[in-house]
Amino acid sequence: MRAGRAPAQGTVRTGPVSLRMGFAGDEFGYAVDLGLPIPQEGSLFGRDPEIKAESIWHGSVPRPATALAERIGPHVRLRDDGGWTSADRALAPWESMLDEVDSPEVRAVRRALRGWRFYDHIRADPESPVRAAEIGTRTPVLASDGRDLAGALQTIREIGMRERLDAAVDEAFPGSRLDIREHDGRFEVTLAQPGLLRPLSAAELSDGTLRYLVWVAALLSPRPAGLIVLNEPETSLHPELLPALARLIGVASRESQLVVVSHAAVIVDALRQGGGRVAELRKVAGETQVAGQGTLDEPSWSWPTR
User: Fold this and answer.
1) Where are the annotated coiled coils located (predicted)?
2) Mean pLDDT in the chain?
3) CATH number of 117-275: 3.40.980.10, 3.40.50.800, 3.40.50.300, 3.50.50.60?
4) Which of 68, 133, 181, 209 is the most exposed, having the fewest neighbouring CB atoms within 10 Å of its CB?
5) Residues 148-174: what's their mean pLDDT?
6) What are the extents of the domains in the chain?
7) Three-state DSSP class for residue 46
8) Percent of residues in the chain assigned helix, strand, coil, to nearest 5
């Protein structure tokens, strides 16, 4: 099919249904294998995914010698100085050893994963929670949907990078001033712009302006994350805002590892010039591949066995 000599043909599945996810870092790596349960009479959860296998290892390359914790089916075993020992109880198919097993290595991976931040889709429609006033509280980490935007911006102003916050707003909207209004314990974002007789509230801002303020709050967080993932942050932004956004990403990358999925050449080129690593994805016969990556260039990896 890839050579263009024949149409796509369906085949019979030879392996089990499986969704596998994992990561590797300098200290620890983790992988999980999810699959479908064995059909049981009387159960309505026949499509509820089960955890078939999990693994934690030391370092960036999974090998038997570096394994620290392994789970196959309900059984978990942990490695210490004396060798392998079994966990004190079997796990249900829907339970992860990250939640139910206690060991230094499991705690370290759990803490790392809980610190990651994913900003995939920020609503900007009239009913978006980002546009509404909210109960004001210190917010060092912006929520994944941006609903606590006012609290996050005020937290940056009081205990974070106040000067960088004001500079990021002025760079994108010259002469504008960001302010957080408080009324009966509720916070509301306002933006005063040259030529307007009064500041605009979050409910009145354009989609692009609102989303830019969300990225400001996410990237200037006074509590840097180990990993921040931004999915198409250029959505709804005016092209003139993209250089300012790229510089914001560069500032955040000094404290956190960032993964940015973008179709905007301005952002990609700016990140590349700033020392970022660019991986271009392409579709080949329905499969997503990294452009220019050969078999020998792929990172060393192996999935846990069931």
Assistant:
1) none
2) 92
3) 3.40.50.300
4) 181
5) 94
6) 18-106+285-297, 117-275
7) coil
8) 30, 25, 45
